[in-house]
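Morning!

This is the sequence you dropped in the shared folder:
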Amino acid sequence: MNQQILSPFPIFNRQMPAGNHSIMGNDPDKGSDDDGDDTNLGIATKTRAKTKKPSPYKVLILNDDYTPMEFVVLVLKRFFNMDIDEATRVMLHVHQKGVGVCGTFSYEVAETKVTQVMDFARKNEHPLQCTLEKA
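The structure's back. Tokens below.
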């Protein structure tokens, strides 16, 4: 009692002629089975261009004479996920050198972080400046 199951797609209901067939058409290991009747089924492939990695951008905090050091540490912890030691180290670097790197991100992430830091500083009435530049 052999029951044949039919596919809703007619092309899959065709019987393959007897012989040496592979799912990929002409298999170099199996020899050529091209008999010219176009009954071989194959897999269509599309070549895709290799995805280019996004350019990295550095988020920078600039020193000023008015923003408290504690606030800068808070910003580094809150928006850049730094622990207290790393945030303090970056804050002191900014204080001494005038500028410091908070992190390196894709453009969109860096832009978002700059906006978040600037908004947070304004809401807390601090003139803290944050910017981004290509790494």
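Headline: The domain at 62-134 is CATH 3.30.1390.10 (Ribosomal Protein L30; Chain: A,).

More detail when I'm at my desk.
O.
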